[in-house]
Write a structure and sequence with these properties.
This protein is an all-alpha fold. The protein has one domain (1-68). It has one helix and no strands. The longest helix has 66 residues, at 2-67. It is rod-shaped. The chain starts with a helix and ends with a helix. The model has no long low-confidence stretch (mean pLDDT 98). Residues 1-49 are annotated as: Disordered.
Length: 68
């Protein structure tokens, strides 16, 4: 009987370890998704900067053309 209770406690500890592993894995996946979102945001920012630079250069060319 005592051995049976001990085995049951061990099974419960194993189930708890498994739940912990699953929680950890879900947390790692959420962190990976957050990192992917941060990277997408950085990429959007780079695109906005390139776009702004293109506008700026176009304006400079226009001004140069107008004053020539």
């Amino acid at each position: 009987r005592e051995r049976e209770r001990e085995r049951e406690r061990e099974r419960e500890r194993e189930r708890e370890r498994e739940r912990e592993r699953e929680r950890n894995e879900r947390e790692r996946e959420r962190e990976r998704e957050r990192e992917r979102e941060r990277e997408r945001e950085r990429e959007r920012e780079r695109e906005r900067e390139k776009h702004d630079e293109l506008i700026y250069l176009t304006l400079i060319k226009l001004v140069c053309f107008l004053i020539s």
